[in-house]
Amino acid sequence: MNDKKGFVCSTCGEYHDELPMSYRSPAPYYWFLINTDEPEKRHKLTSDLCVIDNKHFFIRGCIEIPVEGQKQPFIWDVWVSLSQENFERSIKLWNEKGREEKLEPMFGWLSTSLPNYPETLNLKTMVHTRQVGISPYIELEPTEHPLAVEQREGITLARVKEIAEEICNSNSESETENS
């Protein structure tokens, strides 16, 4: 496989027009555990932010993984929990130009369970704020967890295809979507 163009999936046997280079989770893992009969005012979810019971605060960001021979990284669009203080500081500066200069990296816990890896929930992260309109960069603690290793060392297009095939195989069960 020499490019990001289409491929025949070994899982479903179908041709897919292009190799997905990013996947996203529509909400933090814990959002899916909420009783849907509960009042909406207790829980808020936007495309970038989530608050559950005014006690749990989440921000959406990107784990970027370098891909050998490619200019663009492979991206897991994930959710990370923040302390209330850091969440409120982020909200205060959300639309402010230069916010990336005003917010130091913030500690958070990965709050997305990614397929294709041993459990990723609660991996330690640092959230790096970027310019307005660009999702925060999520840096994993440099452990030996396979996701952290891939973020540090990069992956091949063959690995990207493997991820796509595994997600295709578990698509009905997964909370992760192609973005």
From TrEMBL:
Highest taxon above the source species: Bacteria
InterPro entries for this protein: DUF2199
UniProt protein name: DUF2199 domain-containing protein
Organism annotation: Laceyella sediminis
